[in-house]
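Researcher: Next entry: DUF2264 domain-containing protein (Saitozyma podzolica).
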Amino acid sequence: MPHVLPPAVEAITSNPLRTRSDMVHILHSLLVPVHGAMSTGGARVRLGHTGTHFDAVAAEMEGFARALWGLAPLLSSDPDNAEIKGMRDDWVRGLVAGTKIGGDEYWGDCIDKDQRFVEMAAIGFSLAIAPKVFWEPLKHEEKVAVNKWLLQCNSHLLPDNNWRFFRILVNLGLKSVGAEYSQKAIDDELDFIETFYGPHGFPSDGNNTTCKAYDYYATSFAIPFYTLLYARLAGISDPVRAKRFRERGIANLPNVVQLFAPDGGVIPFGRSMTYRFACSAFFAAVAFDGLELPKPFTWGVIKGLLLRNIRWFTQKPSVFNRDGSLSIGYAYPNLFMSEDYNSAQSPYWALKSFLVLALPETHPFWQAEEESFPAELLSRPFTIVEPWMQVFTHAAGHTFCLSSGQEVAFPMRHAAAKYGKLAYSASFGFSVPTGALGLQQHAPDSELALSDDSEGERWVVRRRVEDVSISDNGVIKSTWRPWPDVTVTTWSIPPPCTSAAYHTRVHHIVSPRRILASDAGFAIHSHTGPSADHERRIPTLASPVSGDHGRYESPHSALAVSKAGVSGVIDLLGAGRGVVQDADGNSNLMSPRTVIPLLLHEVKREMWLASTVFAVPADERGRWGTG
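Model: Predicted structure:
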């Protein structure tokens, strides 16, 4: 018998999310488990028991604060909303309890680089946008306590990345309610954040001379999001910066839209992918600010981009725990891909995309009919976004990017997998290692992996490149060194036309010794059956066109076909051996069970490799001969 969805999950997945009312309902459903996990005083939320590098009190404060990214916008426009009213009062109580020194639920004094600063930003934002709910009802001594606790952010060190905006939002919130704040802190941080922008005008998540991380912090849910918040909240007092931020927002639109697929999926790339539909938060900020939209963007297009992305996640039961809470993971619960700062409460950063609830029903965003992905963007074989060192394509119904030259500025879990792969896909996601032995544990999809031991147990993949360039025809060239004496130069070539379901790679490897090489395609779901409740591993095929589902290996190619679509690789020089590699369970963001088509090579001294990597998502199976 198929499993019955728990009522808490069904309340979310059955929501069509087409209207403002739908969004209010789904916000309530998303917050029911959070509200139910609140402490007596309301200041802390505990949804689970997994750990982080920061303390448990900060993690529980995180659960309180991240809900505000959804609650505060709604309460700013509808403070007496009947569905949320009970929650509203408990969050106000929690703010008081968490800032009461000596109280049972006091959030604690801060230290340098404290996680509490991250969560303070949501409180500062709430004061700025909904003072009638979160400030005016407080007693004088409660206001003083809240003010004093928040001011700690001005006397401690913050990391030199998107965190610097948290100090701005806290002081902006305090300023908006007439409390003690520091204008100098606001101005100093805004000046510092200018160093994030390169000569091309787009930010990385840190000083642009040393940080080359153009992840979702740099493209959507952090810096572009916060700058448009600032433009809206401080536009009158700081019109010069507001104008600059809006111009940057307009310039960002044609780039960030490339990260999204027509079905609402998004290309998972970089860290913090457990924040899920926070990836579309930039579109919510565009609407909140009332940005002047360039062609082909309309309010209907923006609405579609935002709501489709939220639906892509909220209509998947596997995203949620049985109580309806968001799990740590992506398309399903997954700790392998998580960060060491992801608590059980962290995924509620996703509620940034609910910023549009601050807009009334009469706003053009809500009045517009939802429009599909702009057709003219699908008519190009590829789009170069040179500042990010990425080339995007939607060819043959597959949204993915070729990537090179990105790296995060600090040591982090699975940095090579999250930033260094050759390609990232909205349909097939990416994989992370589960262990350190063999290809099965390394799970090196969409990358060239090299091994210098005779058994092929330990593998090295690209994390940092020495140089990278993109030509006008979309070819990305990069060079890296897996070991000091081995050099690899790779050319990644995008699809030649919109109907081509493939891209091409060429590698030039120079090594003074024998090494093994694995040149891999996209990981793909590895089971088949009439339903998720009746699946078995895909069978071995006698030929590449002998079945609707299966795996096929030949001397120079590898293919996997399943309900998720088609993934394969072909050796263009006839030097490699095709293998459909089983990957460890839960190594991939999209599916807990995957295989990886790849080509195995033995490299002696100097060698050229060339391959075609093809992939067709399930909805486009008609393009494949077995479909």
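Model: Note for the record: The first strand starts at residue 383 and ends at 385.
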